[in-house]
Every structure is written in structure tokens, then in C-alpha cells.
Design brief:
Blueprint (H helix, E strand, L loop, with lengths): L2 H12 L4 H18 L8 H14 L4 H18 L24 H9 L4 H13 L3 H5 L6 E2 L4 E4 L8 E4 L2 H14 L17 H14 L9 H13 L4 H8 L4 H4 L32
Antiparallel strand pairs: 1-2, 2-3
Helix pairs in contact: 2-4, 3-4, 6-8, 6-10
Length: 287
């Protein structure tokens, strides 16, 4: 690790940035250096702006991805290098307002029903029933499932914030069945490597495999289950501020994009998973 890279990482750690953000910002600077085959402290501001245009036009990265690179590079030059704004500026990309594709109830039923691996089914149901981000699923421990208060503790979510979300009765049944059969210790969804949790890539792979089996062709990964959670709660009549709290959104504006769906229904719904009619999984054969 070069001294410059170490200094940037130290700058991010001392400011309390999450592991995902640290990795994202570091990758942005590494990509810039590889593009020009020079150390980033020897790259001019104009070249950085040209690199961002290259990512957008030539590599055709999404606006959101370009903005991630932009934030990482701005952090490096403003904080780590100590360059003030007048001497360095990267124009921000305007994010187009696009609504995510949504999974309907029939697709959700197929997704869960056709997933017979107990661990994989529990992972997918947890993502939908609690509206968790992929990284939040990987960090769950068995002790985070509070059946006495019917809550799930989400530790150090986005922005390094803890929160509680309602525990679906149906999810509790699913998790208990999974626990009886698999007996996970420590991490709720452990990796095949002893002592480690599933990685985000592992969780994403579970969704990709299951969605392909279920014939779901809508664009997007496991985050679609989080979108479905929010929109289905909204349709069930749960208040917007409650959905914001459950999802861990800092700003209500982030949650308001789901307002394209009409409200109405039962406001006491703990989770949209309880509204699905799922067939029982067959008991595995013995011997």
C-alpha cells in the first residue's frame, strides 16, 4: 500500500465513512490512476474531468456510478491532497429521475416458492420482509432476531446508523425452520468459509439464480426486493414516515419516490411478506 493510498484511507476512517464507501472511493482513485498510468497526485484537474466524461460517454456508466466516482475523486483531491474548491472542480452529474422496476406478487410468489434451498429462501425472504440492503443482510446475526418484541435489529446500516424494523410473523417461522435445519452460529447467514458471513456478491448470486429460475427478467438485482417492500407497504396504507424509518432513509425525499402508488388498505401490516400466499415446502427426504 502506497503512503498516498494509506493517507486517503486514514482520512476516510477518521471521518467515519462506511466500509462500502471507503472501498468505492478507493476504487475511483485507483481507476483514475490506471487510466492515465500515473500517480493521482500528478493528474491535472482537467484530466480528471476528461476521465469522468470518458466513464460516462465511452464506458457508458450510469449517472449514479459516475457520481460515485466523482465523490471519491473530490474527496481525494479536497481532503487527502488539500486542494481547495477554486483550484479543483468536478462538475456533478445530474441524476435522471427513474423509477425502479417493481416485482409483482405473482413474481414474488414464484421467486420464493421455487427456491427450495432453506438458506437461500431465508435470505430472499429476509430481504423482502424487512426491506434490508444487501450489506445489511450479510451482517445479521442470530441474536438480531428479537422474537419477544417482534423486531429485527439492523446494526450499522447505511450511514453507520442502527435501526429496528418489524419482524414479520411469517419470516420468523421461516427463520426458525432454517435455524433448526442449518444451525448457524454467530452470523445468521454464514459463508462456507468458517467464521465469516455471506458476502454481498454471495447474496446477489442467490437472487440472480433464484430470479432466473422463477423466470423474472426485470432489470435489477436483489435490491428489487427492497423496492418491492417499500411499494407494497405503501399500497397497504403504511405511512410514508414509517416506511422512511423502516428503510433507514435519512431524507424523506428518498422515500417519496414510491408515492407513484396509491395508498389505502391495512395500516397495521408488519411486513408485505404476510400478504403473500405461499405454498408449503415439502419436507426433505431422509436417508
Amino acid at each position: 500500500m502506497t503512503p498516498l493510498r494509506k493517507k486517503m484511507i486514514d482520512d476516510m476512517v477518521v471521518r467515519g465513512l462506511s466500509e462500502n464507501t471507503i472501498q468505492s472511493y478507493t476504487n475511483a482513485v485507483t481507476g483514475l490512476a490506471r487510466h492515465y498510468k500515473r500517480s493521482p497526485d500528478r493528474i491535472e484537474p482537467r484530466e480528471v474531468q476528461d476521465y469522468l466524461l470518458f466513464l460516462l460517454r465511452d464506458r457508458e456508466l450510469a449517472w449514479g456510478s459516475c457520481n460515485c466516482h466523482r465523490h471519491g475523486l473530490r474527496f481525494f483531491y479536497r481532503i487527502t491532497m488539500g486542494l481547495p474548491d477554486p483550484h479543483f472542480y468536478i462538475p456533478g452529474a445530474k441524476q435522471p429521475k427513474r423509477l425502479p422496476e417493481l416485482l409483482n406478487r405473482e413474481e414474488l410468489v414464484r421467486l420464493f416458492s421455487l427456491t427450495v434451498n432453506r438458506k437461500h429462501r431465508a435470505v430472499l425472504m429476509t430481504a423482502y420482509a424487512a426491506g434490508l440492503r444487501c450489506s445489511e443482510i450479510t451482517r445479521l446475526q442470530a441474536s438480531d432476531i428479537d422474537s419477544s418484541r417482534m423486531l429485527i435489529r439492523v446494526e450499522q446500516g447505511k450511514g453507520n446508523k442502527d435501526r429496528y424494523v418489524p419482524l414479520s410473523p411469517r419470516l420468523l417461522e421461516e427463520l426458525r425452520d432454517y435455524w433448526r435445519r442449518c444451525r448457524p452460529e454467530g452470523w445468521l447467514f454464514p459463508s462456507p468459509i468458517a467464521g465469516r458471513p455471506l458476502t454481498r456478491h454471495g447474496v446477489s448470486r442467490i437472487y440472480r439464480t433464484a430470479s432466473k429460475r422463477a423466470g423474472i427478467e426485470k432489470a435489477g438485482g436483489i435490491h428489487l426486493l427492497r423496492h418491492a417492500y417499500a411499494t407494497d407497504l405503501l399500497q397497504a396504507g403504511v405511512a410514508l414516515h414509517d416506511i422512511q424509518r423502516r428503510m433507514g432513509h435519512t431524507s424523506p425525499r428518498t422515500t417519496m419516490r414510491y408515492l407513484h402508488l396509491a395508498q389505502g388498505g391495512d395500516r397495521s401490516t408488519p411486513s408485505p411478506l404476510d400478504l403473500l400466499e405461499l405454498p408449503e415446502l415439502p419436507n426433505p427426504r431422509r436417508g
